[in-house]
Amino acid sequence: MCGIIGYLGYKDAYPILINGLKKLEYRGYDSSGIAVFDNNGYKLYKTKGKVSELEKKIISGSIIQGTTGIGHTRWATHGIPDDINAHPHVSNSKELVLIHNGIIENYHSLKVILLKHGFTFKSQTDTEVLVNLIEYIQKKNKLSLEEAVRISLNEIIGAYSIAIVERSHPERIVIAKLGSPLALGINDREFFIASDPIPFIDYTKNALYLKDGEMAILRKNKELDLRKILNNHKISPIIKELKINIKEIEKGKYKYFMLKEINEQPKTILDTLRGRLLITDGLIYIDSIESNKDIFLKAKGITIVACGTSWHASLIGEYLLEELARVPVEVEYASEFRYRNPIIKKKDIVIVISQSGETADTIAALELAKKKGAFVFGICNVVGSSIARNVDAGIYTHAGPEIGVASTKSFTAQITVLVLLALKIGKYRSTITDSRYNYLCKELGSIPDKVNSTLKIDDTIKRISKIYHGVNNFLYLGRGINFPVALEGALKLKEISYIHAEGYPAAEMKHGPIALIDESMPVVIIATKKGCYEKIIGNIQEIKARKGKVIAIVNEGDFQVSMLADHVIKIPNVSEELSPLLTVIPLQILAYQIAFILGENVDQPRNLAKSVTVE
């Protein structure tokens, strides 16, 4: 969850570290810190709060010089957010300085051992235990830093990406990875370390993604030394060229990344379709499906595993695959799946979905599925991520970097892939007629334009937001394939405005939630013409009979719901199977506008981080 940054080269490290931390804040912003090294030692600064607070603290102090440095922005796990628990952490001798993303599960037992050997601890963190364990092993056995790190990490249970520097050897940084992401940027006489490549794309496009169980020794003016943590075997590095466009990680004309990303969805959906949907030829071409045709053709069932917003997309995938491909589908929370003993047989299909490709629970579920012999198919957004590297086959969404913590464009990109997948498998299995297949393919091609039209309802939603931003509760209702959209709309509101909201199947309202409805309870209901439209009208009448306020998402040309609802948001007409790609847009905007009116930091909601890389 945390973000780590490091630099070793010939430039001043401080501006690289600070700018990198700002780009990594979506991973956590409870506290932050940096350490910059030169031949006289190091300067260490850390503080509770966001990187801007750290910057203020440093500006009021001395000038920081040095061409080696490490930094960290924290999402708190062990210990409250404060100056003491902030990273970097130093060893008792103050010789070793370490940053860490992950969780050391056996830190307490290690701490007890270190206490017996005279070590003391200032913080509540597992990280301070790790840096002192490395120091203990190094001094006891008179080892080099890299060998002490390697031996120490073989004693660790948990997940980590780390960078560590020795005060007496500022020309060297040792990094290592297990379970938490770590990227290395490589330039002439320079190394850049980060949780993802975004902080260093201004400096280099040459990157290496460390794999689990790997460590690297970085030395000034020397070649990269990549090794296995377990046995110290040397590895030949595989360096790849980054394809990220710098403009994609800038806000441009928008105040918040979330608003920018909402408005990028016509493009990101088009990019996800490009090269895969060939409307004029009546074809969907996905190489990873073509090459595994028999597996999908013979599938007796599919399990989809995900977390958060990706789990909501998975529920939509369940509707799509069962409707179009007639394959039984189960959707599982990755955090539950990994700790059960799920019934997965050899060659069963398990689909894992994650925007970042680094979600800890989803990775653990992937590993469990593979151990049971399943064919694991991945859907993720980040090239080279852990999920992308470890699945049997998969497909990338092309949403581009998503900086806002509340996912928007990645959700619609995931749905787009799931539509393609369901149509393709349905075609293989002959469970969809040619006419319906061709119609849906053509309509899918029109979705980017329809999303663009839907975005124009922003002024309508602003007016609604001004009326309801002060309420304490919202209810979101949908039926069929739009029930998961109701869940997603409620999640977005909770995430960024801190207003309690719940999503329900509309028919379930009578089984409890209706007790909450009164004149102060706004109910957002997805009331498109397809999918139990008459039943939805009945639900609205039940709400109105109890003086509830109805905000309805309807299709253009709707009259019945428009006469009943207090507020109407109109979207273009579309087939039910594709409707989530449109119905979610007003809900994203509504959450954004309410949070904006309330003055909340839309991109950095409290207690959340973009990539959940710890349990």
Question: Topology, pairings included?
Answer:
Layout: E1 3-8, H1 13-24, E2 31-38, E3 41-48, H2 51-59, E4 68-74, E5 89-90, E6 96-104, H3 107-116, H4 126-141, H5 145-153, E7 158-166, E8 169-178, E9 183-187, E10 190-194, E11 206-209, E12 214-219, E13 225-228, E14 234-235, E15 240-241, H6 257-263, H7 265-273, E16 277-278, E17 283-284, H8 287-290, H9 293-297, E18 302-306, H10 308-325, E19 329-333, H11 334-337, E20 349-354, H12 360-371, E21 375-380, H13 386-390, E22 393-396, H14 409-429, H15 434-454, H16 458-468, E23 473-478, H17 483-497, E24 500-505, E25 522-526, H18 533-544, E26 549-555, H19 560-564, E27 567-571, H20 580-597
Parallel strand pairs: 18-19, 18-20, 20-21, 21-22, 23-24, 23-25, 25-26, 26-27
Antiparallel strand pairs: 1-4, 1-10, 2-3, 2-4, 5-6, 6-7, 7-8, 8-12, 9-10, 9-11, 11-15, 12-13, 13-14, 16-17
Helix pairs in contact: 3-4, 4-5, 7-14, 7-15, 10-14, 10-17, 14-15, 15-20, 16-20, 17-20
Low-confidence stretches: none
Q: End-to-end span in angstroms?
A: 10 Å
The assigned CATH architecture of the largest domain is 4-Layer Sandwich
Number of helical stretches of at least 4 residues: 20
CATH T-level topology of the largest domain: Glutamine Phosphoribosylpyrophosphate, subunit 1, domain 1
Q: Compute the number of structural domains.
A: 3
Rounded to an integer, what's the Rg over CA atoms?
Answer: 26 Å
Strand ordering within the main sheet: 3-2-4-1-10-9-11-15
Supply the helix-strand structural class: alpha/beta
Strand content: 15-25%
Number of strands: 27
**Percent of residues in helices:** 25-40%
The backbone outline, from C-alpha atoms, is globular
CATH homologous superfamily (4th level) name of the largest domain: Aminohydrolase, N-terminal nucleophile (Ntn) domain
What is the CATH domain class of the largest domain?
Alpha Beta
Described by strand count, sense and barrel closure, the largest sheet is: 8 strands, antiparallel
Averaged pLDDT:
91
